[in-house]
Amino acid sequence: MKLIVLFLLSLNALATSTISVQEFTTQSIQGIPTNAKDFASGYMNPMLGNGQLSTPNGTTFDVSLSCPTSKSFLSVLAQPSATGDLSYLQFSRDKNLDGNIDSVKTFTKPVSGVCSTGLISCTPGTWDDCTGYKWNGDNDNLSLIETGVGNLGGCYCINKSCGDAGRSQRIISSIVTDLGAGAANALTKSNPQYAISSAKTTGSMAQFYGQKLVGCGEGNATQMASYYQNPQNIESESSSLANNADGVYQLIANSPAAKKSITTAKSCSIARHTSYKNIKLEDIISYNGGTGGIHSCAGEGCLELVLGNSSERIYGWCDIHQRKASFYVNMPERIKKATLINAVFDDWARIALNGSKLFAGPVSQGLGDWDGKTIVPGKSCEYSTVWRPRPNVDFTSLIKKKGKHDFTIDVQVADWGFAYAYAQILVDESCSLDQEWLSNSCETVEQDKKCTLKNETIDGVQTYKNYHPTGKTPIATQRQVGGGSCDLNLKRNWWRVDREYECKTNIDLNFDEAIARNASVQDSATTQGYSDIVDGVTTSATFDLPDIKISSCSNACKTKRIKDKVSVSGQGPVSSKTGQEWETLYRKCTGENQNICPNEQGEQVITQCSCLNEFSTASTMMQSLRQAAQDLICTTGSPQSF
Hints:
By secondary structure, the protein is of the alpha+beta class.
C-alpha cells in the first residue's frame, strides 16, 4: 500500500489544473490487467517474443528479449616499434560471418598516424615523407588506397616525432580500435551485415562484431560468463578503468553524487581567426617626390623607377648639376631584386643611392670613378656624345630597408646636356596575412577552481574524454585563407578547441525536506488517502482505488517430451552421454472449465490440469545446480581431471 502511495506522490508534479492527482491515478491503474489472461497477453507473451508490449494507458510497441547472432567479422592486430610507429599491422576478416577467417592482410609500411578514415605512413620516428592511405571497401574487398594527407580526417600522430615513442604502446588499445572502426565503416557501405553490433578490444587486438538476421550468438555474454568463472578478473578490470577515458569510471567518480554537490555543465571554445589583404605595388614601394617617378612594367610584380627627366635639357660649361628622386619602401621583405638597368646622359654622370655609388661614367673612357663633385676640365669636359650604357647593377641589399631612399644623378655638361636612368624592382605582390587572433570563451572557466575539464576536442581529435586525457595529439594542418585572387595557405598546430567543463555550484545537496515529506506520506498512508508536506505546509489528499481482482490460480498441466535440440554452452555444443534426453513443459489448460491439457503430439502428460504448486521441485533443482557448480570449481587453483 505504501509503495502505491509513493508512486502517487511522484505523479503529483505531473498533475495539471485540468486533472487531479486522484483522477490521473485512477485512469492509470484502470489500464493494468486484472486477470491472468490479460496479464499474459499484455506482458508475458510480448517479452517472450510473441506480440506487442502494452502500457497501462494503451500504448503498444515491439519488444524482444532475444538477440540476433553477433559474429566477429573483423579483427585488428598491431605491434608498435621502438620509434612509436606501428611496425606490424594485420587485418583478419570473416566475410560470410560463419565463424571462419576468410582473409588475412598485412600492411607492410610503418604506420605513423591514425585517422578516422585511414592512416598515415612516414619515415619511422619522423613526420617526413608522409603518405596518406584511405580505407576502401568496394566489392567487399578491404584495401588501403594511397591519397593525400589532406584528404583524411580526424588524424593524430603516434610516433616519437609528436612526443615520446612510448605513447603508441600506452594507447595501443585505442589505436587498434580507431583503425578497425575506420575499416569497418568502409565495409558497411557495401555490406549491411557488417553493421557494427559491438566491439571488443583486448590489448593490441580489436574485434568488431556484425549482425546476422537469425539466431543468438556470442557477444558480451561471453565476457560476463568469464567474470562469473574468474571473479578475480573483475577487480583488475575495474582498476584499469580508472585510467580509461572510454569507460564509465571517471563519469561516476566525478558525478554530483560522488562529489556531494550539484554541478552544472559549461561549454566553451578557443578559435583561431585570421584576416588577409591584397597587396598592391604601391603598398611595397611608393614615389616620395623629386625628379623621377614610379610605374609598373611588363611582368607580374615588376616596378620601374625613373631617375631624372628624359625631356629636360641642362645648360652650362663644365658645370655640375644634381637631380634627386625620393622613394619610400614600406614592405622591404617583399622586394625580391633591384637592378639599375640603363642610363642616358651627356656628358658626365654619376648615379648613387643614399650616397652609395651605383654607376659613374663614361666608362668607355676609363673614367668610371668620377665622384660627381670634381669638375673635369678641358677637352674631357665635352665629348659631344650621348652615352647609353647598361650597367645592370644589383642594389637589392641597399634598398631592402624600410623608410625613405634618395636616388641622386650628378651630371657635368658642356653647352647643352642631360641625364636620366631607369631601375627595375621585382616584388612579391601575393596576398598577405593581415591579422591573426584568438577568441577564447574558456578563459573565465579555466580560472575557476570549481570547474573540472570533462571533454576536449581539438580539430576533430578528442584529446580529453570523461575527465581523463586520451593520449591523442592532433596533427598540424594547413588551411587556405583568402578568396578570389588571394591564395594564402597557413599551417598551424591547431585551429579550434572545444571544451566541456563540470562546475560545482554553491548549493550543497540537502535531502532533509524530501526525507520529511517521505516520512509523512509513509506514516499516514491508508487506502483512502495520505498526508503530504509541500513548502512546509501539511496537506491531506484522498483517492479511490479501483477494484482489482486477480484469480489466485490458473489451471495448468505438466508434460514431457524427447529433447530434439542440442544444448550449447560458451565452449560449443554439449552432447548427451545417456542417449535420449527429456524436457519438462507446463501447459496452460484450455476449455470452459480449464480442464483440457493442450499437449502436442509426442508429449506425455505427467500431471493433469490442476492448480499446480511446483515450488518444492523448483527449489530442489536450483539447489542441485548450485551444488553442481561448486563441484566444478578447482579449489587448488590447478585444472582437475574428470
